[in-house]
Amino acid sequence: MRRPAGPLARPPRSPVAGAAVVTAVLTAVLWGQEIVDTFAFGGQLDALGIQPRNPDSLSHVLSAPFLHAGFAHLAANTVPLAVLAFMGALRGTLRFLLATLIIVVVGGGLVWLLGRGSSTHLGASELVFGYLAYLLGVGWYERTPVAVGMAVLVLVLYGGALWGVLPGNPLVSWEAHLFGFLAGLLAAALLHRRRPSRWPAGR
Q1: Which of 57, 131, 152, 185 is least surrounded, with the fewest CB atoms within 10 Å of its CB?
Q2: What is the SS3 string spanning the chain?
Q3: Which GO molecular function terms does the record list (predicted)?
Q4: Is the predicted pLDDT of residue 70 greater than 70, yes or no?
């Protein structure tokens, strides 16, 4: 039995408002962390980046995507991160947060396992490439007009960034780009792939 909507019933929450809040919080966390790191710790928190195959660095998988080597590095990531995070959160706040967790853990775990040694990997570009792949994957698995339209828009806006998954500038963690991208595809498959019904159709 459904409860009739009364005068005190809450109006349904707008997905746009929810996505905007999530994006704003994520952006604020990144900038707040960098401000604190720069002015209170002198950049020492960057040591919490991923150092491949260093056992002491394994837990840094959870912190590395939220650290940056200065404000220029953070500024370069902020706009694509905010745009892609907003678009991803429109697909559902809970699923977006789960996708973020998958990207951070799986993408960062692969960087720790397979990344170049004697280096420290950090930066939100792992999330940027993860969200990019996530939105492309959602378009592939859902194949609804909205999902496909968002995937096409993402390709138009940031398709050129896909070259970043290949080795290039030794100062850029292409491993974080590549493994973040693969983790984003995995998140789309786990969270949006249609599964066959457990029950046979009635006759």
Answers
A1: 152
A2: CCCCCCCCCCCCCCHHHHHHHHHHHHHHHHHHHHHHHHHHCCCHHHHHCECCCCHHHHHHHHCHHHCCCCHHHHHHHHHHHHHHHHHHHCCCHHHHHHHHHHHHHHHHHHHHHHCCCCCCECCCHHHHHHHHHHHHHHHHHHCCHHHHHHHHHHHHHHHHHHHHHCCCCCCCCHHHHHHHHHHHHHHHHHHHCCCCCCCCCCC
A3: peptidase activity
A4: yes
Structural domains of the chain ordered from first start:
15-192 (1.20.1540.10)
Joined tokens for residue 135: 């939105």
**What angle separates helix 71-89 from helix 145-158, to the nearest 10 degrees?**
160
The percent of residues above 90 in pLDDT, for the chain, comes to 78
**pLDDT score, position 110:** 98
Q: Is the pLDDT of residue 9 over 80?
A: no
Q: What is the mean pLDDT of residues 57-82?
A: 96
Handedness of CA 11, 15, 21, 26 (dihedral sign): positive
The identity of residue 89, as a single letter, is A
Give 121's strand partners: 50
